[in-house]
Amino acid sequence: MTDATLTSSAPTTASSPTRSALADMWKQFRAHKGGVVGLITFAFILLAVYVGPYIHTVAPNKINIRDKNQWPSLAHPFGTDNLGKDMLAQVLAGGRISLAVGITAMLLALFLGTLVGVLSGYFRRLDGPLMRLTDLFLALPLLPLLLVILMLFRDTLRAAFGPETGIFVLIVFVIGITSWMHTARIVRGDVLAVKSQEFVLAAKSSGIREYRIILKHILPNVLSSIMVSATLGIASAIITESALSFLGLGFPSDFPTWGRLLFDGANFLQLTPSRVLWPGLAISLTVLSVNYMGDAIRDALDPRAVKR
Amino acid sequence: MFTYTLRRLFFAIPTLLIISFVIFALLDLAPSDPTGDLPLTIPPDVREQIRASLGLDQPFLIRYLKWLQQFFINEPLNILESLTGWQFGDGERMRVLSWATRSPVVDLIVQRLPQTLWVVGLAYIFGILIAIPIGVISAYKQYSIFDQIGTFISMVGYSVPTFFTGVLLIVIFSSYLQWFPSVYDTNLRVTDFDSFVAQVRQMALPVFVLALYNASQIARFVRASMLDNLHQDYVRTARAKGVKEKTVLLVHVLRNSLIPVVTVIALGVPTVFSGAIITEQVFRVNGLGQLLIVAVQGADIPLVQTLTFIFAVLIVLFNLIADVLYGILDPRIRYD
């Protein structure tokens, strides 16, 4: 009897090792309550921001001076601003830009970080210079530098790409190139650990080219830590973008993000406090849910967490 | 250890030189003209004179070397003179001048430093003082109600940006309840009890916002570090030989857990000076962060260069301090 159960269960685990690892991870993730709530909240925000405009069909930039500075009502669930623009529509439109900036900047940072991390972990000759470069970037005072770069290059890029694309490209670029360092360090550590294992040696001795070893054998094995960096990267990119917009150096008012809406609303605090509340809540909820997801993924990938 | 410190200090010099060059080049090669905002009616030769008075008529490298000389030789000498009363040379040294105010940049920084140190520094100290007990208790009673609430609050405090908490607190406590002022008044002199209360009231909100943010970051770290140590063998040994639980927790585990926490606290000190830019802006505290914002908005290049570089120096310095502290506190770490 016991033999029969053993033989019947063994092939199922052996036949699909990758799927069971993913399923294991999903099981671990589901066990983390905060992670599940975070995932649901984040999915809800994504849905609201991308589908919401089809339900709430008021144009975000429609000026209606008669309805200015209104408190929440049925026609304007989040109230209106000092020009009579509908706040709900603006928050939804702002969310699309904020999330787009966050995700694009994270992808750029992830790409740079993985590239530097893999190169310096895999090729010993590049390790020293690339890690010194990483240290150098870590020693830069980032927020002041971001402000300075935005101030200096904003007008040029706006002239080159138009007001919206120019500022988008600039902000994504500066956030991306100033937030890859932690990913690079983590990936380098993982690559160093993976590189010394036998399957890499086996791949090398069978004559596979270096770039194929990196793409086929090294990268899939360091993917887990890259995923954790990715979630945390979205959160920090969204916060950085809103901070820049809040300081008045990010997106312009007619192309608002959550940070910019908060900045514009701060001057009307006593008149219509809801103008500050909604964009702020949106930023906080997004970042909170993404951070919880990051925690859950990290716990799911941490072999020590299984024991506890 | 000593040779390690010396070697690190030696390596810090080229790092800082490269950083200063990067900052200088970035600001200088940017496609923006400092005289671009001046009226078009100014004749070209006057415009040239204005550029010359700002030092812009010289080539890039000369200006960089001059800035280096002003920052690394002239300003330290000035500070030394004012501290000791000695006289070096004739005392007529070129100083880094702000374009907007035409006053030496170092003097501006000295004016702004006390506000930043008081508000942001106090918030950092409060944050540490709150974070350590919370982290210790929530690690010791893992998965208890206290841990759940503490972890949640620290997650919220860490995720919600300070510009939202600040604005929210202003709405609640300054606008509706009118308990605290929303604007920081630098002219307030503490002379008697009433003015002391006024000072405490105006510092309450910014300090609270920043303390919450710092505390939640550090508390997460303390908790993780405590959890790492609580399951170690030496803890079981200590309990087995009959050490009191309080001693096990506060002497054995806490001391070991605080080693990485101390380095994280040291690494966070530069943010006391630079990272509170946003909070200073929300509460109108005219500290260093606000000086930087004003300088950036007014395109006051020398001021921005110097401030940014000072922040970079602080980061490099405290990185070094954190590494050395780690080596001193943890005898297992050997830098050789």
What's the layout of helices and strands?
The complex is a heterodimer of chains A (308) and B (336).
Chain A: H1 2-15, H2 17-31, H3 33-55, H4 87-122, H5 124-139, H6 142-161, H7 163-177, H8 181-195, H9 198-205, H10 210-246, H11 258-265, H12 274-301, H13 303-307
Helix pairs in contact in A: 2-12, 3-4, 3-12, 4-5, 4-7, 4-8, 4-10, 4-11, 4-12, 6-7, 8-10, 9-10, 10-11, 10-12, 11-12
Chain B: H1 2-29, H2 44-53, H3 60-84, H4 105-140, H5 145-159, H6 162-176, H7 193-230, H8 233-240, H9 245-273, H10 277-282, H11 288-297, H12 301-329
Helix pairs in contact in B: 1-12, 4-5, 4-7, 4-9, 5-7, 6-7, 7-9, 8-9, 9-12, 11-12
Description:
The complex is a heterodimer of chains A (308) and B (336). Chain A has 308 residues and is mainly alpha-helical. Chain A has a single domain (26-306), classed as MetI-like (MetI-like fold, Orthogonal Bundle). Chain A contains 13 helices and no strands. In chain A, helix 3 packs across helix 12 (274-301) and helix 8 packs antiparallel against helix 10. The longest helix of chain A is centred in the C-terminal third of the chain and has 37 residues, at 210-246. In chain A, 42% of the residues are buried. Chain B has 336 residues and is mainly α. Chain B is 74% helix and 0% strand. Chain B is built from twelve helices and no strands. Chain B has helices at 2-29, 44-53, 60-84, 105-140, 145-159, 162-176, 193-230, 233-240, 245-273, 277-282, 288-297, 301-329. In chain B, helix 1 (2-29) runs antiparallel to helix 12 (301-329), helix 4 (105-140) runs antiparallel to helix 9 and helix 5 packs across helix 7. The radius of gyration of chain B is 25 Å and the shape is globular. Chains A and B meet through helix 5, helix 6, helix 10 and helix 12 of A and helix 1, helix 5, helix 6, helix 10 and helix 11 of B.
